[in-house]
Write a structure and sequence with these properties.
alpha+beta; seven-stranded mixed sheet; 28 helices
């Protein structure tokens, strides 16, 4: 609200709740939260003042007062607060006070009046000073009143004509400074002792040199005060507020008022002045301004979006963070309706939120807001009520949690993968024990059968077992139990090989391109597993382009800094080799993109996919310390990005796999396994290939056999997970009896615990189940080979 407050009675009636027919003036300014808080914080200061002080809002209601004012009015604080003049005073007195309020609003320095009111002694005279309170923008939001009991002063003034001595005695006992000059202001006739306590100078020095008074005025105010006090119209009244500088350097605020005294002939024979120390009032005023400025600063600096709304959902204030969050300017935000920025799906929850706040219960909810550009963001909102302009409003604090929600979804996906991996690890041992004898027996049958049909049936059994074993291996690759053999290599070689495979096997209508496969950093990886990652991604890309398209394989060195490593839960700052497989196919629908890595989830027709391809890729990449991202738009294609940690080590050459199956030389092998079918199948394979076999059904039985024949047993082939006594405990006991005995460990489940235990016992040959005869024979050949070969 500006200074242009109407002073006419009809307008005043409008401002202070007058009759509906009154004409409308300028509306009063809105209160702010800071104004209310500042007034509450000033209550101790008001109570410490001996003067009666009150604050009214622009509707004429008392909103703050001290005990001295309550005492003057002869009512309790609760009987005064929230009430108007009409509630507290007789009609004539109330009308006079209302007129005084209007005059205070239009006067630069407020207004002063003296009124006679009933008191305990009959009647008393009171000086009432009222002035408007303004916010930093100059808007008036309240009226500040300062009431002084001047009954004694009036009595002194009445007795002044008969006895100046009596006046002088009374003046020496009041806090204001009284002064008297001749009409020309050339001679100071009297100054009260309060001058010494307020100005910090003696009255005698002022009487000797009246200019000392002007020299004490603050330099910035001096010219204005001199013009008012020493104008050509020497007998005129004036009312000035200025600062003085005391001898000790402290500053006080003074309100100085002068008025002429007339003789019976109507001439001016004296100029009388009253100077009041209003430093306390100024401090209150300055504190209010400081609190308001602090409120605006804090409100603007808060990083959460803040919004203040009426209960009819009209926005009255927003902070910059809210505007930035939704992409609106402040002016645009203040014109928003609820349906403009609350997403339709969130509206029902938002209504519940409003009802909870209306009931006085703070409320928190999560929902979507619509930005100016139409995009949606996920937010967390906390709401409560506040008093704003004397009425309850809702205050909402809004935090953008879109990125946090994305990270939570990725984390939950990782948890699902880990849970399925744990399940796979739990059943892998039993499934591999079932498949192991099938693979061995099928190979033996094929070597014995001569009829083509019989060979075909044996091949069917062998293929089925191999497919089952492959599925188990895929499951274990994304569980934490399958580590594989890792060497330092350059992934560019794998991309080059993959390029050749794709060009030879994929349809000719798919164009293949390779980018950046040279000069890559080294990674520590299992070449076979990385090869499987690339195969799965390329096959998926091929299936996404049934009508042809472009497949691009790329590789690059990338370094993630701290501020660039927050886009994925597994990302850490450091060096990575980035492999990407991009296609121009039909893309992945948005509603299923978060499920593509779930085991057994597939969009392919029945019989054309197990749903383990991408889950296996995810598991392999995660087990290599890396992470995987996907970007896809329906109709625009898909890009998978594989991040593998780089290592500072030279690349190791990869040898050509050996497919030969050498036999033994009549060596005695102790075979320990709790599965009878595996013992029977392995025995048959070994005996067919010139080995002798002694078997045991568990670790305890195997240790007993070893005690009996340790001098002739040349190698122990043992399972790891067995009843009674496990493989690790059995091997540890055997090492005590025969430290040099050769040992080959087998298991359907590779766990870090027993792998590290085997390493500590010097066991280097580990044969995963299920295995085929050639793998078994090659492992035994490596175990029997002399050290260093």
């Amino acid at each position: 609200m500006s200074d242009n407050v109407p002073s006419s009675d009809p307008a005043g009636a409008r401002i202070f709740g007058g009759p509906p027919g009154a004409s409308v003036g300028t509306e009063p300014a809105q209160e702010t939260i800071a104004q209310q808080r500042a007034l509450a914080l000033l209550q101790p200061i008001l109570e410490s003042s001996p003067h009666a002080i009150f604050v009214k809002d622009l509707k004429g209601r008392f909103i703050q007062l001290n005990q001295a004012f309550a005492k003057h009015v002869r009512r309790s604080r609760d009987q005064i607060l929230g009430h108007t003049n009409e509630d507290l005073f007789p009609a004539g007195t109330a009308a006079a006070f209302q007129a005084l309020d209007l005059q205070a609003l239009v006067s630069p320095h407020g207004v002063d009046v003296e009124v006679v009111l009933p008191n305990g002694d009959g009647e008393g005279t009171y000086s009432i000073h009222k002035f408007p309170l303004r916010d930093p923008l100059g808007n008036i939001y309240a009226i500040f009143g300062f009431v002084t009991d001047i009954t004694e002063r009036k009595r002194v003034q009445a007795a002044l004509e008969s006895s100046e001595e009596k006046f002088r005695q009374l003046a020496e006992n009041i806090s204001e400074v009284f002064w008297i000059t001749n009409p020309e202001k050339t001679q100071l006739l009297y100054v009260s002792p309060a001058y010494e306590s307020i100005w910090g100078r003696t009255c005698e020095s002022l009487m000797r040199s009246p200019q000392d008074w002007l020299e004490a005025v603050y330099p910035g105010d001096r010219q204005r005060v001199a013009e008012a006090a020493f104008s050509k119209q020497t007998q005129q009244a004036y009312d000035e507020v200025y600062r003085i500088v005391r001898p000790n350097g402290s500053i006080r605020w003074i309100r100085d008022r002068a008025f002429p005294l007339h003789n019976s002939a109507g001439g001016v024979y004296r100029l009388v002045g009253v100077a009041t120390d209003i430093t306390e009032l100024k401090q209150i005023e300055l504190e209010l301004s400081r609190r308001e400025a602090q409120y605006h600063e804090v409100f603007s600096a808060v990083t959460e979006g803040l919004i203040i709304r009426t209960w009819d959902e009209t926005i009255v204030e927003v902070n910059p963070a809210f505007c930035q969050m939704l992409g609106y300017t402040r002016e645009e935000a203040l014109r928003l309706k609820t349906e403009d920025f609350i997403a339709p799906d969130t509206l029902p929850l938002f209504r519940i939120y409003l009802d909870s706040i209306r009931a006085g219960h703070p409320f928190r909810y999560e929902g979507c807001l619509r930005r100016k550009d139409g995009s949606l963001i996920m937010v967390e909102a906390n709401g409560t009520t506040l008093q704003y302009n004397g009425r309850p409003h809702q205050l909402g604090a809004i935090r953008d949690i879109t990125e946090r929600k994305k990270l939570e979804e990725q984390f939950l996906r990782a948890q699902r993968m880990e849970a399925v991996g744990a399940l796979a690890a739990g059943i892998a041992h039993d499934l591999n024990n079932i498949l192991a004898p099938m693979l061995l027996a099928a190979a033996l049958l094929k070597s014995k059968l001569s009829e083509p049909k019989d060979q075909t049936m044996a091949s069917i059994i062998e293929t089925g077992a191999q497919r089952g074993a492959a599925i188990i291996r895929q499951l274990l690759m994304f569980s934490r139990g399958a580590e594989g053999t890792r060497v330092n290599l350059q992934a560019g070689h794998l991309l080059t090989e993959m390029l050749q495979i794709v060009r030879e096997t994929f349809p000719r209508n798919i164009q293949v391109e390779l980018n950046g496969a040279g000069d890559l950093w080294t990674v520590s990886a299992d070449a076979t597993q990385l090869h499987q990652v690339l195969i799965n991604l390329c096959v998926n890309a091929r299936d996404a382009m049934p009508g042809g398209g472009k497949l691009t394989l790329s590789a690059a060195n990338i370094r993630l800094t701290e501020d660039r490593s927050h886009f994925h839960p597994l990302a850490r700052p450091g060096a990575y080799v980035l492999l990407t497989v991009a296609d121009t196919g039909h893309g992945i629908p948005r509603e299923i993109v978060d499920r593509i890595f779930d085991p057994f989830f597939t969009t392919k027709p029945l019989g054309q996919g197990t749903g383990l391809g991408l889950s296996t890729v995810m598991g392999i990449v995660k087990n290599h310390g890396g992470f995987l991202t996907v970007a896809s738009e329906p109709g625009e294609g898909t890009t998978f990005s594989v991040y593998l940690p780089a290592v500072d080590a030279p690349e190791l050459a990869l040898g050509v796999p050996d497919t030969s199956a050498p036999g033994g030389h009549d060596e005695l092998i102790l075979l320990v396994d709790d599965e009878a079918s595996i013992r029977e199948a392995v025995r048959e394979v070994l005996e067919r290939n010139r080995y002798r076999v002694m078997s045991a059904a568990n670790g305890e039985e195997g240790l007993q056999r070893f005690l009996e024949h340790h001098e002739s047993v040349q190698l122990v082939l043992t399972d790891m997970m067995m009843p009674v006594m496990g493989g690790l405990d059995m091997i540890r006991s055997m090492r005590i009896l025969q430290p040099k005995v050769k040992i080959v460990a087998t298991s359907g489940l590779d766990t870090p615990d027993w792998r590290s235990g085997l390493t500590a016992l010097g066991v280097t040959e580990i044969l995963p189940k299920p295995f085929e005869p050639v793998e078994l024979l090659q492992t035994l050949q490596r175990a029997f080979a002399p050290a260093g070969c």
